[in-house]
Design brief:
There is one protein chain. The chain contains 18 helices and 9 strands. With 409 residues, it is of the alpha/beta class. The strands form 3 sheets. The chain has a 5-stranded parallel β-sheet, covered by helices on one side. Strands 4-5 form a two-stranded antiparallel sheet. The chain has a two-stranded parallel ribbon with strand order 8-9. The longest helix has 37 residues. It is extended.
Length: 409
């Protein structure tokens, strides 16, 4: 079995990404067998390289290798292309024609964009995979073929199966081994390696000086999402090589060739300091606890106000609530919240009930979400032990149990 670096060099594959290396290793390992392989990945990631590796490293390497783009063949003629047809089978069939499965007997067929196959063709393909048999269009005679099938798709197959666009049994037949290729944006420094390779090849071919990216431009390239993957990167390298006189490419120049680039794609300097991360986490936990306490204070205030007002003693309400109101006011300063603290008016009972409604209107509805999140985090930190979680939250175990039931945690 050839080593990884030799395979890359032989097939012109650039990059050292772990996911890419794993995909190539899978292809090399599966090549000597005859099992079917499904290559998955976004459009433009280089899926066509995998079946070439598999064919060239197999015992079929001296037989035919045929690549078929299933998405480019019209639905009405794809059966004829793959399986052939008899003379007179349909209008325009002036002579008998061999299909790809007959021509490639003993070799390998690469079915690119296999997810685009019509359902009727999928049935025929399933029969080839199961029995090695097919029937030409317009014929009743069963023919045998001995081909290795490698398929590729950028379609999410499980979604296609759920929508009834792809047969589940065919999917499992094709994907005996599934090889997934990563999108370019996940390949890190491979992006700059590929850019230099494409720029160098284009310059040599057209006898022009090679372009180079400065450091900032390289960072922008690394952070761009590349919806078109390797094809798009090659296109960008060639465009810049032709259009720009300056051979050192700045970020401003590069940005002109990157469609839909926005600030979120640009590199951001982040100080990698674990202590700062912990400080932020602790500060957030403190904030949640303050909000949690504020909610309890507001609930206590409403309950106490209602109880005392039912006895008709407004003055006593003001005196009893003074401490709670002061705590809410202090918490407001700490969290810079929008809770409004009001004094109880010495007027009619109607105005007193208006006070309760005012508190309810100003209560932050997001507090419940924060409370749930804080309880969840505390339970996670204490491995589900309610006693320890309750102690950390500053509430009784009984109250915590009630909250767990209330929020269905």
């Amino acid at each position: 079995m050839e080593n990884l670096q030799a395979v890359k060099q032989r097939f012109g594959i650039i990059g050292n990404d772990i996911q890419l290396n794993r995909a190539i290793e899978k292809a090399v390992r599966v090549a000597p067998t005859d099992i079917s392989v499904l290559v998955t990945g976004e459009s433009g990631v280089g899926k066509e390289n995998i079946p070439k590796i598999i064919h060239q490293l197999s015992h079929r390497k001296h037989a035919k290798y045929i690549a078929v783009n299933c998405g480019a063949i019209p639905e009405g003629t794809i059966d004829s292309e793959l399986f052939g047809h008899e003379k007179g089978a349909f209008t325009g069939a002036t002579q008998t024609r061999k299909g790809y499965f007959e021509v490639a007997d003993g070799g390998t067929i690469f079915l690119d964009e296999v997810g685009e196959l019509p359902l009727t063709t999928q049935v025929r393909l399933l029969r080839v995979l199961e029995n090695g048999e097919f029937i030409k269009v317009g014929s009743s005679q069963v023919q045998k073929t001995n081909v290795r099938i490698v398929a590729a798709t950028n379609v999410k197959m499980q979604e296609a199966i759920t929508k009834g666009k792809f047969r589940e049994d065919l999917y499992y037949r094709l994907s005996t081994i599934e090889i997934s290729l990563p999108p370019l944006r996940e390949r890190g420094n491979d992006i700059n390696l590929l850019f230099r390779k494409f720029a160098s090849d284009f310059a040599q071919k057209n006898r022009i000086p090679v372009i180079r990216l400065d450091e900032n431009a390289s960072n922008i390239l690394l952070n761009y999402r590349f919806p078109g993957n390797i094809r798009q990167l090659k296109n960008i390298a060639e465009q810049i090589s032709i259009m720009e006189e300056n051979r050192i490419i700045s970020p401003e120049i590069l940005a002109q060739y990157l469609p839909n680039i926005s600030r979120k794609n640009l590199p951001v300097l982040v100080k990698n300091d674990s202590s700062n991360s912990n400080d932020f986490s602790n500060e957030r936990d403190i904030m949640y606890k303050i909000l949690f306490d504020m909610r309890n204070d507001i609930n206590d205030l409403k309950k106490l106000t209602l109880d005392l007002m039912q006895n008709g003693n407004v003055q006593e309400v003001q005196e009893e609530n003074q401490g709670i109101i002061q705590r809410i006011y202090n918490d407001q300063d700490t969290t810079n919240s929008n809770i409004e603290v009001v004094q109880i008016p010495e007027s009619s009972s109607e105005n007193n009930y208006d006070f309760i409604e005012t508190i309810e209107e100003h209560e932050n509805l997001s507090l419940q979400e924060k409370e749930v999140e804080m309880i969840k985090k505390s339970l996670d930190r204490n491995r589900g032990k309610r006693k320890l979680a309750a102690k950390e939250l500053g509430i009784s175990e009984r109250t915590l149990y009630r909250k767990i039931k209330q929020y269905d945690l």
